[in-house]
Amino acid sequence: MASSSRAVDSLEAGIYTALNTSLDDHGRVINWIRDTSIAYIDKIKQLFTYASLASIVLLTRDLFDALNGRAVFLNSSYRWYKIGAGSVGLLAIGYFGGRWLTPEAVPETRNVEGRGAVKITESISDTTFQTTKLILNISLACFSKNRLLPLLSATALSYTIFKNLNIKWIVVSREIINNNQSSRIGKLRITYSQMMINPGKQTEDGCKECAKEDEPKIVFCDSHAYHTSCITDWLAERIFHIRPYDLKKTVTTKYRNGVYDGNEISWSATVDDKDLPKCPHPECEKPALKSDLGIVVYEGSDVYPASLKINNNSDRA
Ligand SMILES: [Zn+2]
Ligand SMILES: [Zn+2]
């Protein structure tokens, strides 16, 4: 069973390698793996989270067995208490190590002149599970008879953690307050998030926003890179271009066995594709490699996420 957990670790490292592979043309197959990893990164991460939970249980059990047979200091009284306390301690080190590597993002509120307030959060992927597995594998390498396999897993996991720390998410949100007293809508919240991948190596020289050529770059589209602060400033202003319209409320009356069973409320809105952030390079106009737009409706004390329609045919001014 532990071997399947090792296969998962290698697969995860492989996915992150593909994801971070510089965006040059690597041939059809590698390009496809890279683009698919980028497009489905949320789902992929979710799957790896489930796999990680399972392997943490398996690894802890393996460590229990290894400690029981090998560790000299355990050959005295209170053996099981020591093993139990040791395992709990290792899990705690892994958990808090992961939190230390990827602290919770603190939102920054900024006032964009002449526009209004935006909330900006810069976050990196959480590595708590990988760090916990890393600590367990290193401990297994110390105590189990076979050291090679836990060390291979530890290498793959360190690599995954390193790659994860290179993926940033910039989340920018703003609110539209409704001043129309006749409507129960209090406000709309627009949240735009964008994955910022470090290209690994330079895609093109210099940041396209400030024209300086130093410091690491973050990829926006598949061929232009920027400084994180440059692209954040730009997005903080750019989110005011996103103006949802055609806000619609749908109330569906539910019946169960012919008896009234409450109403189901849903909201929808439309956004023009031309208003969504596109690469700031003047000759590019490509969308971000991976982005997400969410609109939430606050009605009275209720909060509803709106389903979005993207309009591609709006008149280009
Ligand atoms: Zn710059
Ligand atoms: Zn571009």
Short description:
With 317 residues, the protein is an alpha+beta fold. The chain has helices at 2-20, 28-39, 41-70, 79-101, 128-143, 148-165, 228-238; strands spanning 108-112, 116-124, 167-177, 185-197, 218-219, 225-226, 245-256, 259-272, 291-299, 302-311.
Write up what this structure looks like.
The protein folds into 2 domains: 2-104 and 125-165, no CATH class; 169-311, no CATH class. Helices cover 41% and strands 27% of the residues. The chain has helices at 2-20, 28-39, 41-70, 79-101, 128-143, 148-165, 228-238, and strands at residues 108-112, 116-124, 167-177, 185-197, 218-219, 225-226, 245-256, 259-272, 291-299, 302-311. The strands form 2 sheets. Strands 1-2-3-4-9-10-8-7 form an 8-stranded mixed sheet. Strands 5-6 form a two-stranded antiparallel ribbon. Helix 1 (2-20) packs across helix 2 (28-39), helix 3 (41-70) packs parallel to helix 5 and helix 4 (79-101) packs across helix 5 (128-143). It is globular. The chain starts with a helix and ends in a 6-residue tail after the last strand. The relative contact order is 0.11. The mean pLDDT is 85. The structure holds zinc ion (ZN) (2 copies). One zinc ion is lined by residues 207, 209-210, 212, 226-227, 230.
